[in-house]
Automatic annotation (TrEMBL):
Pfam families: Epimerase (PF01370). Belongs to the NAD(P)-dependent epimerase/dehydratase family. It comes from Gracilibacillus oryzae. InterPro entries: Epimerase_deHydtase, NAD(P)-bd_dom_sf. This is NAD-dependent epimerase/dehydratase family protein. CDD domains: SQD1_like_SDR_e (cd05255). Residues 3-291 form the NAD-dependent epimerase/dehydratase domain.
Length: 382
């Protein structure tokens, strides 16, 4: 297939582009490089040194003989997006190209507005461009489990059957997003669902959990292909932050009680899920929702897992509970369905001590790059 990976320079997008290319698909990347610019804005960095996108793609071609085309630009610029689609005429459009940080969206009004404009307008442009130029193209959109929040009932995959006053219907699962970022994803889901219904577009919404891990088989082929590793209080995941903290002699900083429970998956499963969605496209007019995660963990459990491995690796550490900068339940029920991708062939990689150990040892190699003042939270929801 001809596949566009929008956001193909990012943490999920880059290994996805390589994986799909290695599998024989004809891949092109759209990216505005804004994630690299945000590093400069926040005076932050990827813990792993990352090459430019041009260097990455050139090295990939040198190693494999496979070409990945680059289009540098922003999805909010509709004329640019249309030109790319005219040239590529893709069979699938993989959409990672959004501002993905909840804390970033909560910094202030400007960052909230930027997040919503970038994410919602960019996705609307993709929908209109598909309708106008490639109506049979399958939109594979990265959503988030965070759209659902933490309801006190089982989270279904996108839809729920409701009985009300003697009548039944299957309706979109209620959304309770926890940040302006997560709210932008809810808007995306509604807009895509609407476009599928009125225009006959085919789309898969992947409500993804938190991604951990660093490498795929493709990114390990050469240091130039290395994936980014975020650790700061704005873009770093709790697991990454804990691992980095353990190697520099910092307490593992758990927000609040640590009972916050979320869905997780390995980066190797992220790329496989995209492949599964591409090879099993939604029907025309179908808005299909998959919950893309493989396991559930609480923040406190993650800290305990990291502490055990860090202690064994010679980095004894303590767990400290910080006042939670977010507005969220810290003790709650959480269970989500995740059978659809498994039914289509996903064989999960699970978070074990060896995965944590592998990341930790990579971190040790680059811990001189840690900007220590970026590790603690600096953004509050209140």
């Amino acid at each position: 297939m001809k596949i566009i990976v929008a956001g193909g320079d990012g943490f999920c997008g880059w290994p996805t582009a390589l994986y799909l290319s290695q599998k024989g698909h004809d891949v092109s990347i759209i990216d505005s490089m804004v994630r690299r610019k945000i590093d400069s804005e926040l005076h932050s960095n990827s813990l792993t040194p990352i090459a430019s996108l041009e260097e990455r793609v050139a090295k990939w071609k040198e190693l494999t003989g496979k070409e990945i085309r680059i289009y540098e630009g922003d999805l909010v610029h509709y004329d640019f997006l249309k030109e790319v689609l005219k040239r590529e005429m893709p069979d699938a459009f993989v959409h990672f190209a959004e501002q993905r940080s909840a804390p970033y969206s909560m910094i202030d009004r400007e960052h909230a507005v930027y997040t919503q404009h970038n994410n919602v307008t960019g996705t609307l442009n993709v929908l209109f461009a598909i309708k106008e130029l490639v109506p049979d193209c399958h939109l594979i959109k990265l959503g988030t489990l965070g759209e659902y929040g933490t309801p006190n009932i089982q989270i279904e995959e996108g839809y729920i059957e409701i009985e009300h006053k003697g009548r039944k219907d299957v309706l979109p699962f209620p959304k309770q997003p926890g940040s302006f970022y997560h709210l932008s994803k809810v808007h995306d889901s509604h807009n895509i669902m609407f476009a599928c219904r009125i225009w006959g577009i085919r789309a898969t919404d992947l409500n993804q959990g938190i991604v951990y891990g660093l490498d795929t088989e493709e990114t390990k082929l050469d240091p130039v292909l290395t994936n980014r590793l975020d650790y700061d209080g704005v873009f770093g995941t709790a697991l990454n932050r804990f691992i980095i903290q353990s190697t520099i002699g910092h307490d593992l900083t758990v927000y609040g009680k640590g009972g916050q429970t979320r869905g997780f998956l390995h980066i190797k499963d992220t790329v496989r899920c995209i492949e599964i969605a591409a090879e099993n496209p939604a029907d025309k007019g179908e808005f299909r929702v998959f919950n893309q995660f493989t396991e559930e963990h609480s923040v406190g459990d993650l800290a305990a897992k990291v502490k055990k491995v860090a202690d064994e690796e010679g980095f004894p550490t303590n767990i400290a509970n910080l006042e939670n900068p977010r507005v969220e339940l810290e003790d709650h029920y959480f269970h989500a369905e995740n059978t659809k991708l498994k039914d289509l062939g996903l064989e999960p990689h699970l978070l074990d001590e060896e995965v944590i150990r592998e990341i930790l040892r990579t971190v040790v190699q680059h811990k001189d790059r840690v900007i220590k003042e970026n590790i603690l939270p600096q953004v509050t929801w209140k």
